[in-house]
Specification:
- The chain contains 7 helices and 18 strands.
- It has about 375 residues and is α+β, with helices and mostly antiparallel strands.
- Strands 8, 9, 10, 11, 12, 13, 14, 15, 16 and 18 form a 10-stranded mixed sheet that branches.
Length: about 375
């Protein structure tokens, strides 16, 4: 209980506000009650009741609740909020906290941009370098494969060598982002961290194993590419370990630097550990050793062709990329020449004939003749299965 200088008694509620209990003293009249009469605990309801009073810690003495309410309204406080200097300190605290949160938020955004921007720029550089190569050196020609008119890449290697003298081939899988020049360096490290234009880039470039023969006069042509998160380079290869995805591949094309287009078909796909040195081989003692390697590769694959092999497999094309299913895994798509499955019906379409008449290219089957050699010497395109 509290009492002022006139002997009026007050009690304090849970919010720190003071309210009159009784009114004493001559001449005192709060809310219309007779002087000296005990008005009880009711207030704020009309005549006969006292006006509540509040004590302000920011000033000496009491003030009416109405005055306090007006002051609170002017300061933005609600009834029951802290008053005076404590309230002002609370507002400043909230303002400081909001500023700190805003600064932290801006800092996080800056860090995110600084971290993300170099990756984005490197992605763009790799993308642009490959797009420039395609624009400078690759068009398409129409040929008929097994009775179906098909667009195959027609590559100008002279133009591509102006961009990079180490380009030895071109790989394309229709209806996928895979449509890239294939350079070959003296080791397998350089193009892991350099783009096609030879500049350092963490996302590297598609490239041929340094131990593979770019003229294909060996048993295994191995081509590597990063699994980029934007879907470029060899990211799509990782999907082909699934049989359902593997079955979506019809044919793909590899063009050698003599202009010959090799029509390929998938044989199998497997996921191996990166430290498994026997999964990718480029050296064999003889044909029997190679044949055993082909059989073991198919046996360990998660996806295998349903087509019947009708002739001896004498050469493999392996496209390898990282697989993120397990740490350090690799997905390898294994392909062979389409003739392995008996697909040898390759003829010239009307578009190709027009190109031949203009001296731009030639499409021919090469079963048991030296047409490919003659066409290569003439600078013409040859399609082989």
């Amino acid at each position: 209980m509290y009492r002022d200088a006139d002997g009026n008694e007050f009690y304090r509620d849970e919010y720190g506000n003071f309210h009159p209990v009784s009114v004493r003293g001559s001449g005192s009249n709060w809310g219309g009650a007779p002087a000296g009469e005990d008005v009880g605990q009711g207030y704020g309801q009309g005549q006969g009741y006292a006006t509540p009073y509040q004590y302000s810690r920011g000033a000496v003495g009491f003030r009416s609740a109405r005055d306090a309410a007006d002051a609170a309204a002017r300061s933005g406080l609600r009834p029951g909020d802290a008053h005076g200097s404590d309230g002002r300190r609370g507002g400043k605290g909230l303002t400081i906290a909001a500023i700190i949160l805003m600064v932290v938020g801006v800092a996080l955004i800056v860090v995110a941009i600084v971290t993300w921007l170099p990756h984005y720029l490197d992605y763009q550089k790799v993308h642009n370098a490959n797009q420039d190569a395609a624009a400078a050196g690759v068009t398409s020609q129409t040929t008929t494969i097994d009775g179906v008119q098909t667009q195959v890449p027609l590559v100008d290697f002279d133009a591509l060598r102006q961009i990079n003298s180490e380009i030895v081939g071109w790989i394309q899988i229709p209806d996928t982002p895979i449509n890239y020049a294939v350079p070959q360096h003296s080791d397998n490290d350089f193009y892991l961290g350099h783009s096609l234009d030879g500049e350092y880039n963490q996302y590297g470039n598609v490239f041929m194993d340094y131990a593979s023969d770019p003229t294909l006069n060996d048993y295994n042509t191995v081509i590597y590419g990063h699994h980029l998160k934007n879907g470029e380079e060899f990211a799509k290869i990782a999907d082909y370990s699934s049989q359902s995805e593997f079955d979506t591949i019809s044919q793909l094309y590899y063009v050698t630097q003599d202009g010959v287009v090799h029509v390929l078909e998938p044989l199998c796909a497997m996921v191996v550990n990166g430290y498994d040195v026997d999964s990718i081989r480029t050296s064999f003692t003889d044909r029997q050793d190679f044949a055993q390697y082909v059989q073991s590769t198919m046996a360990r694959s998660s996806a295998v062709t349903s087509r019947q092999v009708t002739s001896e497999i004498t050469h493999l094309y392996m496209l390898s990329t990282c697989s993120y299913a397990r740490e350090n895994d690799r997905t390898i798509l294994v392909c062979v020449d389409a003739s392995v499955f008996g697909d040898t019906s390759i003829g010239a379409s009307s578009d190709a004939v027009n190109e031949i008449e203009q001296g731009m290219g030639e499409v021919t089957g090469v079963e048991g003749d030296d047409a490919s050699t003659q066409n290569a010497e003439a600078g013409q395109a040859t399609v082989m299965a």
